[in-house]
Structures are given as C-alpha cells and as structure tokens.
Amino acid sequence: MAEVITMPRLSDTMTDGKVAKWHKKVGDAVKEGDILAEIETDKAVQDFESEFNGTLLYVGTEEGGSSPVDSVLAIIGEPGEDISQLTGGNADVGVSPKEEEKKIDEEHKTENESSSIEETTAEIPAGVEVITMPRLSDTMTEGKVAKWHFKVGDEVKEGDVLAEIETDKAVQDFESEVKGTLLYASVAEGEASPVDTVLAIIGPAGTDVSGLTTDGAKEAAPKSADSENSEKPASQQEKIETTSSDNATGERLAISPLAKKMAEDKGIDVQSLKGTGENGRIVKKDIENYQSETPAAKSEKNAVSAPKNVEAAAPAPINFVQGEDSETPNSQVRNIIAKRLAESKFTAPHYYLIVEINMDKAIVARKEINSLPDTKISFNDMIIKATAIALRKHPQVNSTWRDDKIIHHGNINVGVAVAIPDGLVVPVLKNADQMNYNQISAAVKDMAGRAKSKGLKANEMEGSTFSISNLGMFGIETFTSIINQPNSAILSVGAIVEKPIVKDGQIVVGNVMKLSLACDHRVVDGATGAEFLQTLRTYLEQPLTLLL
C-alpha cells in the first residue's frame, strides 16, 4: 500500500519548506533511512530521511520549489501501483509533476513559456551563467535593485560588487561569483523582482541570450538614461588601483572592493589572508571566514573603525525648501519595518515597567575593567551582559508566543537595535550569556559597523530571543519601545544622568539610569517582568554579583 509523505515541520516557525535537492527520482527504489531530499526551512537546510521501503512513485514539489507544511511531498509504494486518488487524479503513476509539465509543454507549445532556470538550462549557451535574485533573508520574497555597479556590456570579475540589493531587512552588496560580460539585466535601478527570478546574465561578450529572457531582449540597460550616458564611475575605472595594495614582498595584492571595506571595518590585516578568488584574489567569503587570534585582539582592531555610539546613525538628509512639500519614496526596508512594528503593536498586548538604576558602582567597575590591557567596554556592553545573565534566571521573559503554546528558548540570543540611515536593524549576539565583556564589545562594534556599511549577513539579524534599544547617547532619559517579535520583551535604555538621590538618609549627587521594559502580556505577566527587572537592577547596581 502506498505511503503518502508530507512536507515535515522541521522548525517551530516553519510554514513551508523548499526542496533544495532530491536524492531520489521517480522510479528509484527507496529504503528506510535513505536520504530522500534536502529540505530548506526558515532556519537551515536539513536532510530528510525516508521512513518506508518501496519505490518513489510521485514527488509533489520540484527541486527548488516550495510547498506548505503537511502538503503532499512524495508517495512511496509498489512499482505500478495506482496512486491517482492520492494525487487528485491529475498525476500518472511514476510520473513527477516536472515530467508531466514537460510532456504537456511538448504537446501544447504556448507563448507564455516560463523563464525558470530549470526550463532554460538546456538552451543556455556555453560559458553563460544565469544569476537569479538571491534570497538574502529568511523572510525575503522579493528584492529591489538599489543600485547597479555595472551596466550591460561591462566586464565583470569574480568578487566584483554587481549590484546593491535592498531586502526586507537592509541593503546588501551582491557580489558576482563568475567572470564575464554583463549580457542582460532584468531589473532597472529602483525596481524589484521576486526571489529566484532572473536578475542578470553573464557570459562571453556578444553571446545571444534572447532565448533566456521572457521579453526576448538580447540586452537590457540596468541604469537610468543619465547613468548610461555617463562614464563608468571612478570607483570602477580605478578598480585595479583601489582594490590592490603592496604586500611585504612588494607585490600587488588583489582584493575586491567589498572585501577591502569589510577588512577595514573588522580591522583585519589583509596581508595575512590567502584569497580564494580568481588568481588568488581576496573576496567577501575570505573575510567572512577569517578567524581572529583572540577576542581581545579582535576588540582592539574593531575599536579603530567602529563608531563610539554603536546605536546612533545620521539620518538620510532631507532638503528643506520654504513653502514646498517634498516626498521620499518608501524603501523596502522602511515598508517592512512599518509592517512589522504595526503587527507587533496591534497583535501583542504591550505593557511597560520602568525602573531607576543607581549606576555609581557600575561606573567604578567599568573604569577598573578598562584599566586592564587590551580592554575597552561601554556601559551598553555591561547592560547586555547583565541582561543575558538575568534572562537565565527568568526564562519566561526569554520566550515566544505561538497560537497554541509558548516556546521557552534554550539559547539566550540578544538583539541590539542599530539605527541606519534608512531605518533600523537588529544584529543578534548568539548565546550572549556565555560571552565575556571583550567578546560582547567586539561583536557589537563589529556588527554595528557592518550594519552601516551594508555588510551584515542575513543570519546575523535572525534568531533573537530578547532585544535591547539604547538611546542614552542622545540624552534621552526615558522612552518605551515596540517589541521586536517574535520576542516577548524589549529593554529600552536611557541616559546616565547626575541628580540628587537619598543615600543612607542623606541627599547626595548620584548617577542614575532609567530602564523601561516593554512586555507581551500573553507571555510575560506583570510580576514576572518586575522580578526580571529586580534581578537586572541587582546586577547593575552590584556588578560583582555577575561573578556569582
């Protein structure tokens, strides 16, 4: 008897799954324990094993395609078994949807042929690479081309920044993984296209790629008319000079522009790196894979290029003209921020708790810590550390609401809100409770710096279980924040100010700071939130208790 295999739920937030790769094809024998397919979830790609013996009779989702959780993924049974009732009667035994579609296309040729990569692979000329819109975040459904760095006809090298792609989280540089001539660009600057659709085509100069495009165009200009009539930007004209430097032996060192910028932000000595790009060129992945010697050394290097107040950023300039209104089109980032904040505010019942912290001992402790060699931490680093340890004692605050359950997270991943000119991003410190001050300081400076230079990777902004927003550097004493879902709470940090306080029955000058905790009442009750703040207050007012 045939067994219907459905799309598994491989994570608590997974709503659909993408088949990254099939390890079996229709007609193949399958044994229990065989890896049937690789399933891409909203968190990772996981092997999916078969629990049955038999023959693979049907696949419900093609390689590269997605389907909802619990929908039919595959059917395993005896060879020749009739499974038409299990597939709605629209599939023949032993024929996959892809084969059916191919058969129908052969019989009924239409003008509306799909431009998917699977269907055009056989017609792709030698040396030509079709580049699709990348999925740069787990929630991204389409990408907007903020800027093209090349125009049709330009030569592109491996590691060159091809375009700036605006996702639902940030604007990120998109590097070419191949070399050749840019033959086609499907999206103009400022326009968007869905994930996995054709973005560009690169190959030998003069190659006819009209058969690979939906409009039959041999080329399309990705830039505006003004851009096309202008010379290639100086940054491109001088690419060899600006992306090379002399090494210790006097030889020229090849490095891509993005890799050079990332190395500068991280304080990495590029002379110590071995490039994996063309002719030994240092590219983005070489910087991402670089491992620094020690947390302290990394902290010292990052401190050179990182901004002092990591949460602050200059807003995009707006020209004021007396008597004239102006408009700024919403970016993809701004639209998504608006959507998610509105969803959070109107779906999660917020309430707020405010506490005042005496920071006198924290100020003394920070001064002593920073007197140590290779150490320089901020009050924000101390707050992150204290918060992470407090979350250990109050796991209910480190939880997420689901419609039928509450998920208590086993890891403490603290998101730190960072303002960028076009909105707000929240880089995540994974397992922050296990990090020391130097590691926290280095990580925050590194990610905040890369957030402003569009160097953050999507997975560095995912998986937070609690968030912190600090506006103290602007002199803001008290404010409240909107919860960064799926978190159940967010801590708002104000400025440290001098004011009269009562100490041992006497009025003295003290240094105080106000913290505001926004809680989702579905998960965090008032008493639970208050107890968490009491613990956090103890850690900050008595820093030595963090060592207990």
Automatic annotation (TrEMBL):
<feature type="region of interest" description="Disordered">
    <location>
        <begin position="207"/>
        <end position="251"/>
    </location>
</feature>
<dbReference type="Pfam" id="PF00198">
    <property type="entry name" value="2-oxoacid_dh"/>
</dbReference>
<feature type="compositionally biased region" description="Basic and acidic residues">
    <location>
        <begin position="97"/>
        <end position="112"/>
    </location>
</feature>
<feature type="compositionally biased region" description="Polar residues">
    <location>
        <begin position="232"/>
        <end position="248"/>
    </location>
</feature>
<feature type="compositionally biased region" description="Basic and acidic residues">
    <location>
        <begin position="216"/>
        <end position="231"/>
    </location>
</feature>
<feature type="domain" description="Lipoyl-binding">
    <location>
        <begin position="2"/>
        <end position="77"/>
    </location>
</feature>
<keyword id="KW-0808">Transferase</keyword>
<dbReference type="InterPro" id="IPR001078">
    <property type="entry name" value="2-oxoacid_DH_actylTfrase"/>
</dbReference>
<dbReference type="InterPro" id="IPR004167">
    <property type="entry name" value="PSBD"/>
</dbReference>
<feature type="region of interest" description="Disordered">
    <location>
        <begin position="80"/>
        <end position="120"/>
    </location>
</feature>
<dbReference type="Pfam" id="PF00364">
    <property type="entry name" value="Biotin_lipoyl"/>
</dbReference>
<keyword id="KW-0450">Lipoyl</keyword>
<dbReference type="InterPro" id="IPR023213">
    <property type="entry name" value="CAT-like_dom_sf"/>
</dbReference>
<keyword id="KW-0012">Acyltransferase</keyword>
<dbReference type="InterPro" id="IPR036625">
    <property type="entry name" value="E3-bd_dom_sf"/>
</dbReference>
<feature type="domain" description="Lipoyl-binding">
    <location>
        <begin position="128"/>
        <end position="203"/>
    </location>
</feature>
<feature type="domain" description="Peripheral subunit-binding (PSBD)">
    <location>
        <begin position="254"/>
        <end position="291"/>
    </location>
</feature>
<dbReference type="InterPro" id="IPR011053">
    <property type="entry name" value="Single_hybrid_motif"/>
</dbReference>
<dbReference type="InterPro" id="IPR045257">
    <property type="entry name" value="E2/Pdx1"/>
</dbReference>
<comment type="similarity">
    <text>Belongs to the 2-oxoacid dehydrogenase family.</text>
</comment>
<protein>
    <recommendedName>
        <fullName>Dihydrolipoamide acetyltransferase component of pyruvate dehydrogenase complex</fullName>
        <ecNumber>2.3.1.-</ecNumber>
    </recommendedName>
</protein>
<dbReference type="Pfam" id="PF02817">
    <property type="entry name" value="E3_binding"/>
</dbReference>
<dbReference type="InterPro" id="IPR000089">
    <property type="entry name" value="Biotin_lipoyl"/>
</dbReference>
<dbReference type="InterPro" id="IPR003016">
    <property type="entry name" value="2-oxoA_DH_lipoyl-BS"/>
</dbReference>
<keyword id="KW-0670">Pyruvate</keyword>
